[in-house]
Amino acid sequence: GSSAMWRSALSVPLLLCARTVLGCTRPRTSSFSARRRPSFRSRPAGGRAAPYASPRRQRPTSKPFNDDEGFWGEDVDDEFGAKTGASLYQDDNSDFLYGVSPVQAALRQRWRPCERLLLQENLQLSKRKDAGAILEVQRLAEEHQLPIQRVDKGTLNGLCGNRPHQGVVLQAQPLSFNRISKPPAPSSDAGGVAEDAPEAGRRNVWLALDEVTDPQNLGALLRTALFLGVDGVVVSEKNSAPLSPAVSKASSGAMELMQVHSTKNLVSFLDDARAGGWLVVGAALDNSVLPAQLDSQRPTVLVLGSEGRGLRTNVLRACEQLVRIPRAPSGTATVAAGGTDHSSLVDSLNVSVAGAVLLYALL
After folding, report:
1. DSSP per residue over 79-117, as a string?
2. pLDDT for residue 326 is more than 80
3. Where in the sequence of the chain do the CATH 3.40.1280.10 domains occur?
4. Which member of 55, 67, 70, 90 lies 3.0 to 4.6 Å from 161 by CB, making a disulfide possible if both were Cys?
5. Contacts of 117 (CB under 8 A, 6+ apart)
6. Which pairing describes strands 114-120 and 205-209: parallel, antiparallel, or unpaired?
């Protein structure tokens, strides 16, 4: 009985103490704390808190990036649903060419139906080496009676996916491949990149690309083809990079000045080429010869494979010969400080670089 009385006597002060502690930690209610406070993003590790974002629409910390498809800028709409920034020009049926050279080439060639020219506001042409080209772009746009609009840099960034636009963006219709099933006769002009018929004694050369998917490589190859005067370029219809603004930029506008062909079945295209007298040569390391060992009197189709796996097996079988680029002996620049030569770690070239070397050797 005495122990029960002691337990009941102790429980009273303990209960009062607990109520006191809970009362101290309970938040006070006031007119300020009862108001709805804005929500903030979580603090990133090792940095300051991110800026305020309303709970209704929080912007992602990073945006999806695709080499072939840009995003439409930061501001899709405001809180009233009105389009702002790059979304004002959003159009699923349009390309946004960016960069001075691609825009200048597109306006000169006049293959694309164009909608408007967007220039960055406050362009200081007096400090630009390409001021003459930009002035020509403006003049060509006026001749085409295109609307010319001055916009902020953020809008241009959004339209071209934060790529280097140089303050110039052209909204135009997309370009498409010219589909063919077989190459032209070797003696005729290919109607591709060469402006004039092949020179006397000069070999006819076509470039065939087997599933080259990287837009930077495709653009660089088109630039080389135009510069060296290749007679035609054909790509496999499936699993190839499209003729996108990224390709046009990488080609420095060459894509706008040449006709790029596609074929549904590259193997059949190469078989028809061999039957028509073309020498079909694939770029590969094994069982290959040097460019100088090829027959210089025969018109040639040079076939390049994808960046990762090279030529597909059935494409290899369609080639009459294989060609390689000889690797030079190691120079003094390849020797490490300790005197050990590790240059064998680099045993190949990028497909666009290899294409440039082989095309120059063939032409």
Report:
1. TTS-B-GGGGG--TT-EEEESHHHHHHHHHH--S-EEEE
2. yes
3. 178-326+347-362
4. 70
5. 103, 137, 138, 141, 146, 147, 148, 149, 168, 169, 170, 171
6. unpaired
Q: Which CATH superfamily is domain 178-326+347-362 in?
A: SPOUT methyltransferase, trefoil knot domain (3.40.1280.10)
CA 202 to chain CA centroid, Å, is: 34
193 SS3 class: coil
User: Which tens digits make up the pLDDT trace of 46-55?
Assistant: 443 333 333 3
Closest among 102, 107, 172, 167 to 141, alpha carbons compared: 107
Give the total residue count for the chain. Answer: 363
User: Residues of 301-319 as b/e, b for ≥16 C-beta within 10 angstroms?
Assistant: bbbbbbeeebbbeebbebb
Domain with CATH 3.30.1330.30 in the chain: 85-172
Distance between CA atoms of 172 and 160, rounded to whole angstroms? 13
Helix 131-143 vs helix 100-109: crossing angle, to nearest 10: 30
